[in-house]
Specification:
Blueprint: H1 18-51, H2 70-98, H3 102-105, E1 113-119, E2 122-127, E3 132-135, E4 137-141, E5 146-152, E6 157-160, E7 168-172, E8 178-182, E9 188-194, E10 207-212, H4 214-226, H5 234-246, E11 273-274, E12 278-279, H6 282-290, H7 292-295, H8 311-322
Parallel strand pairs: 1-5, 4-10, 5-7
Antiparallel strand pairs: 1-2, 2-3, 5-8, 6-7, 6-9, 9-10, 11-12
This protein binds dinuclear copper ion.
Length: 329
């Protein structure tokens, strides 16, 4: 219970999206039924315990046997069936509603579709038909369904934004792609988690869903296509050169670039977190580049010693990366 405290927009118990609300309803129904059954059983149990306890002078009395009592057997068969039906009807109904992708497949569909590829231990987001790829921060417009096609570049992961939608597995390969939708009316930054154990940094495989108004979303898409522009300081320009030599073989800095071994960094300066988990500042960025394995064990980022990237180069690199912004501010 305590683990759920203190973080906004991370709780399935405070749903802010359509899918999460449906799942919350199911939780409430099952908990109410379970509490009712529990109370009835405890009441009968307590009554029997008090009423029929052995009193002074009682001999070895055998209680009246009810084996083969038809009425009782019908009663305790029918009640559980009814309870399970009350649970099953909305559960099956919601399961089909949540898995419904017909809106996305319709010919006149205008829903955004994002191909989500999970990697150890980060997330790649490719907006279909937009030539926009990003990572870690998934922008969505409020008030409409955004469909996500889930796959994985390595092992099985699971895509979970608890306050907006239930979890769904990312399977390796193209043959087993799961699709689910995200929909929320509330603008905000939502926490995303990997919900399938996938390696040493599974618990650190966080991402964000950033829900903005449709107008803001369109502006963001346009800004992403335009890119972050040239470095604004001399140090950042020096950082760009170091980036080109040491980092560019894995990390793209254009939203149009598809694939890539490492996360696309086009809007890195706008990100909510460093590496998905650290406060977004220059200190942490430099710490991350120096010690990626200590911060997120088992990830694929190479470690750069001071011989390879000096402290001065690191400062320049950090200034360049934090300057990669497409937001209007
Ligand atoms: Cu990816 Cu757990």
């Amino acid at each position: 219970m305590l683990a759920g405290c203190g973080r906004e927009n991370l709780s399935a118990l405070q749903p802010k999206g359509e899918g999460a609300s449906m799942l919350y309803d199911l939780m409430v129904i099952s908990i109410v039924i379970m509490i009712a059954v529990f109370l009835v059983v405890i009441a009968i149990y307590t009554y029997v315990l008090v009423r029929y306890r052995k009193k002074k002078g009682d001999q070895d009395i055998i209680p009246e046997q009810v084996e083969g009592n038809r009425n009782l057997e019908i009663l305790w068969t029918v009640i559980p069936i009814l309870l399970l039906l009350i649970l099953a009807v909305p559960t099956v109904n919601y399961t089909f509603q949540l898995a419904d992708t017909s809106e996305m497949e319709a010919e006149d569909s205008d829903n955004y579709v994002v191909d989500v590829t999970a990697n150890a231990f980060w997330w790649n987001f490719e907006y279909q038909g937009q030539e926009v790829t990003t990572s870690q921060d998934l922008y969505i417009p409020t008030g409409e369904k955004v469909f996500v096609n889930l796959s994985s570049a390595d092992v099985i992961h699971s895509f979970w934004v608890p306050a907006i939608q239930g979890k769904m597995d990312n399977n390796p390969g193209d043959s087993n792609v799961n699709t689910i939708y995200l929909e929320t009316d509330d603008e905000g930054v939502y926490w995303g988690k990997c919900a399938e154990f996938c390696g040493p940094s599974h618990a650190l495989m966080d991402f964000r869903v950033i829900a903005v108004s449709p107008e803001e979303f369109d502006a963001w898409l346009a800004n992403m296509k335009e890119g972050p522009g040239e470095p604004s300081t001399e140090i950042a320009a020096a950082g760009e050169e170091i980036f080109a030599q040491s980092c560019a073989s894995c990390h793209a800095v254009e939203a149009g670039a598809v694939g890539g071994v490492g996360p696309n960094l086009t809007s890195f300066g706008d990100r909510e977190k460093i590496a998905g988990i650290l406060e977004h500042n220059s200190e942490n960025l430099k710490e991350w580049i120096r010690n990626p394995q200590e911060i997120k064990p088992g990830n694929n980022m190479p470690q750069f010693s001071e011989d390879q990237i000096s402290d001065e180069d690191l400062d320049a690199l950090a200034e360049y990366l934090l300057g990669l912004k497409v937001s209007d501010e």
